Amino acid sequence: MTYPDAECPQWDESERLAALRDYGILDSEREAAFDDLAALVARICETPIAVVNLIDADRQWFKAEVGLGVRETPLETSFCAHALLQEDGMVVPDASVDPRFDGNPLVTGEAHLRFYAGRLLKTRDGLPLGTLCVLDTEPRPEGLNELQEMALQTLAGQVMSQMELRRALRQRDESENAIRRALEASNYVGAWDWDIVADRVVADERFAAVFGVDPAVARAGAPIIAFTGAVDPDDQERVQAEIDTALSGDGAFQSEYRVRSSEGRVRWIAARGQVYFDDHGAPTRFPGIVVDITERKQADADLEAIAARLRASEAQFRVLADAMPQMVWSTRPDGFHDYYNARWYEFTGVPAGSTDGEGWNDMFHPDDQTRAWERWNHSLATGEPYEIEYRLKHHSGVYRWTLGRAVAIRNDAGEITRWFGTCTDIDDLKRLEQGRELVSQELSHRIKNIFAVITALVALSARQYPEARAFSTSLRTRITALARAHEFVRPHTETSRPTVGATTLHAFLSDLFKAYADDAGRSRVAIDGDDAVFDDQAATSVALLFHELATNAAKYGALSNDAGKIELTTRADGERFVLTWTETGGPPLSGPPTTTGFGSSLAQLSVEGQLGGRLERQWRAEGLKIVVDLPSTALSRRRAAEKAL
Hints:
The protein has 645 residues and is an alpha+beta fold.
C-alpha cells in the first residue's frame, strides 16, 4: 500500500498486514455481532452509512456495513487509508473542499460522499488494522456531537474486543485440534507406567523430559516421588488428592496441572491414566500419558482477559445507550421486543422486563394501539423502516406524544436479523405546533379581512372621486388577485381547506384563471406540462404576474375576442423551471408598445425581483409570447430550505 506524500506511517506495513492476517477475519462471513455494532453506530451518529473497515494490501474490506451493499472497494478511493496515519482517527467535515479528497470519485461521483468520521481499530501493540467509520452525503461543518464521538470511540473498542475474542476462540480450537491430532499420532505425548507395589515408574524420554528426570533413570524405573516433585507447589496437594481418588475409586485419572523445570520454566500438562486392581481390589499398576497444553492454557487465559474486556465494553455500551436522550429498544427478526434502555423505564415507570414481547402495545393510548400495530406489522412483513407518532403512557399517568422509529438489519441473504428503534418524546413540540397553527390561522383570517376592508375602501373612494374610477377598478382587481392567492395558500382547518385540490402550481393557476372562462364555463387558458410543488412564499409574485398577463390579454390580446386562446406550458429543465405564455387568435400585433405600463413593470418586478428569474417578451404578429425562466426552487423555497438541512 502506498501512502500520500508527507504522510509517513510510524509503523512497518509488513508487520501491520501480518497482524491483520493473524486475526483470520478477512473474507469471512458476516456475523451478527459486527453487523449490530455497525447498525448501532449509524443510528447514534444519524448517518446513512457505517462500516467496520479493514485495510488490506490493495483493498479495503468490510466486515460489516450499513448503506453500502458491497463487501470491498479499491484502496485508491479509501478515506480510511488516510485515517490510519492519524493517532486515533480522522474527521472530514466536507470532503469536497478537502484537498485530500476533492478529486476522489466517491466525492465527485454518484456516491456524493461529503462527511467522514472514523476511529482506528488498533492491536495491543498499536498497529492500525482499519476503522469503525460513519459517512454522510451531506457536509457536517460541526462534525459529531459529544455523545456521538463517545459512541464511535466506545463501539470501536467493542469491535476490537470482538476481533480479539474471535481470534482467541479460533486459536483455542486450533490448539485443541492439535492436542487431538497429537494423541492420535502419538506425537508430543509422554507415557508412564507406575508399578504401584514396587513403587517404580517407568517412562519414555518425552515424559522424563517434561518432569526433569534423567531419561536413563526413567527407562530403568524410579520412585513416584522422583516425578511428582516437579509438580508446581501450588498444584501438588490437589494432584495428590486426585491420584488418591483414582487409587481408591474406579481407577480413572484425569488432571491438568503445572510442572516446573529445574530452570524455573512452567509448563501446563494434561494427564490421563487408569489404575488397575488385583482380585482383592488392591491397586497394582497405573499407566497413562501426558500432553503439553501450555499454549491452550495461555489461549484460555487470553480468552478470559478478552471476555473481561468485552464485559467492560458491554458495560460502556449500556452506559452509552442509557445516556441517550431517546428511549432505545431492539427486537428479534419476528418483532419480539427483548431490550430497552434505562430511558424507557424512566419514562414509562414500568418494571424491567414487563414490556418485553408484545407488552409494549399496552403502553399506547387506546385510540393509537390499532394504528401502531398495523404500522409495525407492515414493517415486519415488508422490512420497510418503521415510523409513527403515537401517545405513550408516561409514568405520571398521562399520555405524551412520541415519535417512534426503527430500521431493520439484514444479512448477506437479505434476511432481517434484528430491528433497532428509538422513541422520542415530542409532546412539547406537538403542543407548540398546535398553538402555532392556531395563531397562524387567526392571523391569516385577519389578513383575509384586511384584503376585504382595503377593497371596500378603494370602492368607497371611487364613488367619492369618479375621475379615479378606472384606477380604482384596476387596483381592486389586483387586490382581489392577491386575496385569491392568499386564500389558496393560507393555513386552513379541515373544513376551510380549498376545494381545488393539492397546492401545486397547476391547481393554483387553474383557480386563478376561472374568471376568464367562456360562456360554457371552460377555461380559455389551457395549462399543460410539468407540475410543481407550490408554497405561500411564491404565491404573491405568481398571482401578480399572471393576473397582469390575463388582464392585459382580456383588454388588448387573445382574450379580448371570442376566437382567441392562450396556452400556458410549464417545463422542468434540470435546475430551471420554464413557463411559456402563448397568445393566439387575438388582434394582430404590429410590434412592441411605445410605452411601458405599470402592469408590465409589475410583472417584470415579480419575476426578476421576487422570484429571481428572467422574463422575455416576444411581440409576434399572431400574438404575445412570454417566457419566464425561474430557478427550480423559486416556487417552493420553504421545501428547498428544509431539504437542504
